[in-house]
Amino acid sequence: ALGAHISAPRSLKMDVWTPEMQQVMLSRGNGFVNEQLEAHPDTAKFKPSPNSPVEHKQAFVRSKYANKAFCATGSGQMEEWETSSSAKTTAGQVHAGICVVKVVKAADLVKA
After folding, report:
1. How many CA atoms lie within 13 A of 40 on its CB side?
2. Residue 95: its pLDDT value, please?
3. At what angle do helices 29-37 and 19-27 cross, to 10 degrees?
4. For residue 89, which phi and psi values (nearest 5 degrees)?
5. Taking the mean position of all CA atoms in its chain, how far away is CA 73?
6. What is the pLDDT of residues 73-109, one digit of tens each?
7. How far apart are CA 16 and CA 33, in angstroms?
8. Helices in the chain by DSSP H: which ranges?
9. Half-sphere exposure for 89 (CA within 13 Å, toward CB)
10. Which end of the chain is more exposed for a tag (fewer CB within 10 A), N or C?
């Protein structure tokens, strides 16, 4: 995870979107953001494939969002990464363990 100070994913159903946020997404969308964050000519050289190790994907995401390395004025370089033997990758899915969550109390849930 990048942390909320770098990336703040929002749910269409569970989060509140201000009119300004709605306007930006409706007028520009993810494509515009990716064009800006991947404008450097060297981006393709570092962009991971669906079968890349999870560490490569994480390093690319940190370089793209936190370091802005692939913006037009960025360094065009990806931070270093090491492959761990504990994580396994398969066509776009990462299997690094199992997490079981027990919901103890919930309030104001959105109806699906």
Report:
1. 20
2. 54
3. 70
4. -120, 145
5. 21
6. 999 999 887 766 555 555 555 555 566 666 677 666 6
7. 20
8. 19-27, 29-37, 43-46, 54-61
9. 16
10. C
Would you call 8 exposed, middle or buried from its count of C-beta atoms within 10 A (0-12, 13-18, 19+)?
Answer: exposed
pLDDT digits (tens, 9 = 90+) for 21-69: 888 888 888 888 889 999 999 999 999 998 888 888 889 988 998 899 9
Separation CA 54–CA 29 (nearest Å):
26
Query: What are the phi and psi torsion angles at 95 (to 5°)?
Result: -120, 95
Which token pair is 16? Answer: 């509140």
Tokens linked to 36: 């800006």
Give ∠ CA 36-42-47 in degrees, rounded to 5: 80
Closest CA to 94 of 49, 48, 51: 51
